[in-house]
Amino acid sequence: MSTGKTIIGKEQAEKYHATGTSDISIFVNGRTHSFVATRFSASRAFVEMESHDESIFIDYGGDLGPGEHELTAKDLHVIYRDPPGHTFNRVTDGTLKVVVVGNTFKATLQNLRLLELDGETTARLSGTYTINL
Questions:
Q1: Which domain of life is it from (predicted)?
Q2: How many CB atoms lie within 10 A of CB 93?
Q3: What does each of the 133 residues of the chain score in pLDDT, given as a tens digit?
Q4: Minimal CA–CA distance to 112: which of 85, 90, 81, 130?
Q5: What is the pLDDT of residue 35?
Q6: Where are any strands of DSSP class E within 15-73?
Q7: Domain boundaries defined on the chain
């Protein structure tokens, strides 16, 4: 059950409902935890993954067509909201590799670093997700 940490609106979340899996490690303040999404919203241009108390939103910067894509910090807009409600939204480093086959997106986050709104705290995201539109 969502606690309202959805980045996109409820109507859009329903319109862009997708299925998927995620296995993402998140490192913040010396601690690492596993993020396993239970709800997915996606299109060819974005994905939002939610668990019961945190969310990750990734805007690819445009529609991704078939094939392999490697997106860097300058290409991406990412928002991560952690369980206490902190927002990390400035991508400073790392890559996202996405392979698109039909309506399936298989992605690998490689040391994606985000700064919190205060500019002081960094979150690092690494792992994989698969989305089926």
A1: Bacteria
A2: 13
A3: 233 344 567 677 678 999 999 999 999 989 999 999 999 999 999 999 999 999 999 999 999 999 999 999 999 999 999 999 999 999 999 999 999 999 999 999 999 999 998 888 999 999 999 999 9
A4: 90
A5: 97
A6: 17-28, 31-35, 39-42, 46-50, 55-59, 67-72
A7: 10-132
Q: How many helices (H) and strands (E) in the chain?
A: 1, 10
Distances (CA, A) of 89 to 55, 100, 109, 132: 12, 25, 15, 25
| Cα gap 1→124, rounded to integer Å | 25
Q: H/E element holding 12?
A: helix 10-15
Tell me which amino acid residue 102 is. Answer: G
Cα 124 to Cα 4, 42, 67, 132, 133, distances in angstroms: 23, 22, 26, 25, 26
Half-sphere exposure of 102 (CA within 13 A, CB side): 5
- Give the per-residue pLDDT at 119: 81
Fill in the amino acid letter for 117.
L
Q: Output the six-digit token pair for 69.
A: 């894509």
